[in-house]
Amino acid sequence: MPHVMSSKEKEPLLHSWIITLGRPPTADEFSMCLRVLDTKSYERITNIPDPDEAWKSLVGRLIPYVLMDQRRAPRASWALKESKYGKPYIDHGNDQKTIGYNITHAHNIVGMACAIGPKYKVWNIGIDAMRISPPEDMSVDDFIESLIHKLTPLELSFLDPSLSDEVKLRRLYILWTMKESYTKALGQPIGFDFARIECDIPHRTIRVDGEPLLGWEFRLFRANTGGWGRNQATMGARRGGGGR
Q1: What pTM was computed for the model?
Q2: What pLDDT score was predicted for residue 7?
Q3: Which letter, b or e, does each residue of 41-61 get, where b requires 16 or more Cβ atoms within 10 Å of its Cβ?
Q4: Which Gene3D superfamilies would you find in this protein's record (predicted)?
Q5: Domain residue limits, the chain
Q6: CATH code that applies to domain 15-238
Q7: What value, to the nearest 5°, has the Cα angle with vertex 62 and ends 22 and 26?
Q8: Rounded to whole angstroms, what are the CA distances from 186 to 95, 235, 238?
Q9: With contact defined as beta carbons under 8 Å apart, do 244 and 213 qualify?
């Protein structure tokens, strides 16, 4: 039976964590962190061939443990689980206080978006982050051209070549992280056609397959990591059980 939200029922608050990574871990530190993980997470991390990617993924896997430790929840009282669509959540025996979350990592940051509430309200959460920096091997305009198949004509109009490179990059990563956070919130696989999603930022509207996206909330913010640069991040969450 579908849930009908009462007028007094509030949406779960969205929370975000952004962690800046400095030096690489020592072998002992990496091994010690690995031992904290559950068997499934352990196997996933040890199968990542790139040490840098493995470290960022490991930190992302550790954040839920830190979250539950701060909530003073005994380790035996909760478990990391996934929905049938692969969406991660923390189950600690109360369906009304499920913790839904999503992880992202880019360059030297790892981020987490989460919310606490009934399962159906916290599963559809996504977060994405990108460092705002020019590509090393091509111009900004060529970089945008390489992504033209993932952008709509309207979105391309926001990236006019006459604009400064800084403005174009910032706008591009806003568009990109919004699309990523939406598909991650849905649990869509890598390869989802981003051209199906159109972000009309000036009119605060998102369309999917030409239809307005309803019942969703998106929050945009920047994470300044000092000498490591600036990062554009976006959280997306389905609200009230509406929309796609």
Answers
A1: 0.87
A2: 38
A3: beeebeeeeeeeebbbbbbbb
A4: 4'-phosphopantetheinyl transferase domain (3.90.470.20)
A5: 15-238
A6: 3.90.470.20
A7: 45
A8: 20, 12, 9
A9: yes
